Amino acid sequence: MDLYLPIANLSVNGIWIVALGMLTGILSGLFGVGGGFLTTPLLIFYGIPPTVAAASASTQVTGASVSGVFAHSKRKGVDYKLGGVTVVGGIFGAGIGAILFRFLQAAGQIDVVINILYVVMLGTIGSLMAKEAMESIRPAQGSTSRSAPKRRHHPLVTALPLRWRFYRSGLYISPFAPLILGILVGILTMLMGVGGGFILVPAMLYILGMSAGVVVGTSLFNILFVTMATTMMHALTTQAVDIVLAAFLLLGSVTGAQIGTQVAQKVKPEWLRLALAVIVLLVALRMLFGLGVQPDEIYTVSPL
């Protein structure tokens, strides 16, 4: 089944696009990440211009997050107060990202910047995930009777002014911490077409010190609204959203999210993290290779 993508000016296989959306949905259900950090580079590998891939992937990430938010909400796994603060920051960050996107697009450097950002981010995140997964799989050394240390927020968070209580997360911290985190994620979502969960989840755990039971649900809550905002901004400012591409990605992602949720209950999480880390590192290496190879056609997509 061939599809014509009007914005990208390409004909693609619709079944492959649906399958890619399903993969993203599975990742969302498994790890609480939007999955856009793999969708965008895979679309680029398929020949879709980076600008169109990044703008359209953010639409699909929204759909992958909806069912996850509902599932975690039923078991009270979403901190709506803290999530609301990150959403506000994310929308503001998306506005900043839109300005940067237009500037880089006008300078003719947006495609290169998107690729470089992915190489850096995927390489870093993949390495950290692989290290953590290997440490979890490796047999424990010494006594195993000691309890795990209590999570505490980063010292930089303590230095910020004002304090709010986020009861569901078990935190008493400055609202500026999740606000700043949301801004950074919003900028990355606009530039890279990612949901930001692969940054939000570890940041919420190790910087904010959130309770592990609400991290995934709160991350998906943020992703849901921030990707909605970035899609609207892309449609209004960059005109790079391909509605046909986004619709087929969305079709696959909603189904994949349900599959991912079921798989997550049956497989050991450390093995899942290791598998994802390997995939992420392979994609980063492939994108790094692509930066050093001249493409068959040198072009980018810009609004008329």
Compute the number of structural domains: 1
Order of helices and strands: EEHHHHHHEEHHHHH
Proportion of beta-strand residues = under 5%
- Report mean pLDDT, rounded to a whole number: 75
Fraction of residues in helix:
55-70%
Q: Low-confidence parts lasting 5 or more residues at pLDDT below 50?
A: 140-149
- Judged by helices, strands and strand pairing, the structural class is mainly alpha
Q: Which strands sit side by side, in order, in the main sheet? A: 1-2
The main pleated sheet reads as: 2 strands, antiparallel
Give the number of DSSP strands. Answer: 4
Count of alpha/pi helices: 11
- Rg for CA atoms: 19 Å
The rounded distance between the terminal residues' Cα atoms is 29 Å
How would you sum up the global shape? globular
Report on the structure:
The chain is mainly alpha-helical. The protein has one domain (2-136, 153-291). The chain is built from eleven helices and four strands. The strands form two sheets. Strands 1-2 form a two-stranded antiparallel ribbon. The longest helix has 28 residues, at 110-137. It is globular, with a radius of gyration of 19 Å. Residues 140-149 have low confidence and may be disordered.
